[in-house]
Amino acid sequence: MGQTGLSSRIRLGLGFLEATVAGAMLTVMVGCTVLQVVARFVFQTGLSWTDEVAMFSFIWAALMGAALVINSGGAHRIDTFVNLLPGSVRRAVLALVYAAILAALILLIVYGVKLLGVVHFQRSSILKLNMSFIYVSLPLSAGLMLAAMLLDWRVYLGDGAGDTAGEARNG
Questions:
Q1: Is this model's pTM higher than 0.90 or not?
Q2: Which end of the chain has fewer CB atoms within 10 angstroms, the N or the C?
Q3: Number of domains in the chain
């Protein structure tokens, strides 16, 4: 099986992981929110832990959802101006954009990992969870986005630079 088949399998695996985690966290977040509303209005009591679980689930769902959008080619880009440029200039601009995105993702990974060292001994206020479990979502999601961007190198650097990610994946 060629590189295209391998990259398709990698992309499908990453997408499954991202969608599973994002969907599970979204379900937990909604469940905790509904539980809190029912507890307050039906039983006239509050559950302190549901707010914390919902907030942590939201963080994970948002970051994994962002990785899923990047992986699936759903991120929109404004390319009207870029498409007006001659081919060689367009490829140079797209290469610069690609490099900037890669640099930003690498910074998120590096500083996200450094942040884990800072928060490793911190505990959440209610559940007393190690905050590393929450903060690891940042470098992990950035790593997943980086993997998806590396799989899309042809969109930015290949002969068809300027095509959409979906066109490059199918081509």
A1: no
A2: N
A3: 1
